[in-house]
Design goal:
- The protein has 338 residues and is an alpha/beta fold.
- The chain is built from twelve helices and eleven strands.
- The strands form two sheets. A seven-stranded mixed β-sheet has the order 3-2-1-4-9-6-10, with helices on both faces.
- The longest helix is centred in the last third of the chain and has 40 residues.
Amino acid sequence: MSYFSIIIPVYQTEKYIIDCIESVLKQNSDDYELILVDDGSTDGSSKICDQYASQFEKISVIHKRNGGLSDARNTGIKVAAGKYLLFLDSDDFWSDSQFLKKLKTGIEHQDCDVMNFHYKYYYEEENQYRDFFSSIDEESLGKMNADQRFQYLVEQNQYIASACNKAVSRELILQNNLYFRVGITSEDIEWCARLASCSNKMGGCNLNAYCYRQRAESITHTLKAENVDMLRKNIRACIKHGELPDRSTQYKNAYFIYTAYQYGTLLFHINHLEKKERNEQRKLAKPCKYLLRYGKNKKIALLRVFSRLFGYQGMNHCLRLFIILSTIGNRKKGKKNG
């Protein structure tokens, strides 16, 4: 049995999939299996996957009808045999050939069922990288109990709504039925909430090898009213998963700090919408405004202050104004650079 099962959902990424696969093959550790899940691609991605599988024993390919990212990940989970599972999107890649070896060392040192690591943005047009996470104190983290670890990771913005910056125990996933919800957007938010409610011991490290490619046509850059509505529903699901009878008050508070951050993201997206849809989503999101009191993040804390000073509607008007001014500023900056 391999230590890691790396699951890569593949859909219409002919341009990027080779870089993605090669970043895995360049690892100086061979303690892994690589599962490529071709989610009904109609470009050259399927052929590329087959070519790699025919050359390397560690690589297997599953061809399936298109069902979306969640369904593809679930397909990979069901056949994975590794002790820990890793999710790598097919347009992203790893930049460090030592990544798997270092990650295994960190997991064993901290004895955790979920290991959180960093990622960085990769802007393909400029061929530039930008860090997203700040460093954490790994030595102190290793000495904490389970509740303290989770609180520390959340408050340091290390536990975020992403499946791709986590190594997760396969046993934890199977025992708790931690499959991704199919047919939704923002699926990582709700999945990470369930993961947090089930994890017995979180871990965290400063590994920063995952490169999150920023491209205009990707799903995450598509902001529609139905996606915002789904985000709101996912946050409601997070609240429900936060009913943790066997967890300490410390753990629950940390859990709702995570949820509050997602709520702040929701408000930000709502205020990008057109007026009619914006007003409708503001009303639907209002019952959850109490989440702001859990926010430790600076942006969430600022929203909380605005809410107290100007009320819920006034806070949203301030946020809308900020978005408009930022957009104008970015346009002027773009013209100047152009």
